[in-house]
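Okay, is this right?
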Amino acid sequence: MTKRRRSALVALLGAIPILLSAVLPISSASAHGSTMNPPSRTYQCRFNENPENPTSAACRAAVAAGGTQAFYDWHEVNLPNVAGNHRAFIPDGQLCGAGRAKYTGLNLARNDWPATRLTSGANFTFQVKATAAHLGVWTTYVTRNGYDPLTPLRWSDLEQFNQVTNPPISNGVYQIATRLPSGKSGRHLIYTIWQRQLPDSGEAFYLCNDVIF
């Protein structure tokens, strides 16, 4: 190879990343994660089961409704630019899927989603697996007494019981210590919003956990 051809090849290879950045979409979602204890719906169907052959009826129905890709993308149930305006972006009935078509299976109103048993009023540490960590505020809600899991989840079904800013992270897992709400029994849903800190990003993540008190 002549010196001139070698120089031209080097110049071409150096330009490839620039060319790719011009034609490929760049995702704004760099903070990813989901609850592993108790498992979120995406974590449950992805890791505790298998999206290709789910063992629970609820995960099978979720795959039938929205396909398997949602569970391979288990850690990005997100919206990029909500900046705290969650109710404006996510309609009633679509809270668990963040209003995104890909995650429509997470919104299924069923009373047989695999659920974790918790003790009402007890201290508990939520563990959230993070594939990328970022500063932010975590707000956690629980469904009100009288919640019917066979009815699509609405914003009015939720009451806040915890909020923490920048919880500690250990070995890639957020540790969110809280006292669980008192006066709860039976099947409920815990809903967490992880809002990244402005002005770093307006991105937010949404986590749904099925529990039995």
The chain has five helices and ten strands. The first strand starts at residue 33 and ends at 37. The first helix runs from residue 3 to 23. Helices lie at 3-23, 41-48, 57-66, 69-72, 86-89.
